[in-house]
Amino acid sequence: MARGNQRDKAREKNQKEMAAKKGGNSMSGHEAAREKDRVAAIMQQKQAAAAEKKAADAAAAAAQKK
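-> structure tokens emitted (66 positions)
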């Protein structure tokens, strides 16, 4: 019967740990908006670079066919 008690104690401990981890977001609204804008700018730069690379590859392929 000691095993059942051990299981219950382990479950209680795990629930406490999971509740402590589930703290939520610590950023304020302004900080979150600023972070979102920063990430969006980085993604736009990556997309522009990818589009340029794709255009350059297409031009190279077209020049190679001639």
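The chain has two helices and no strands.
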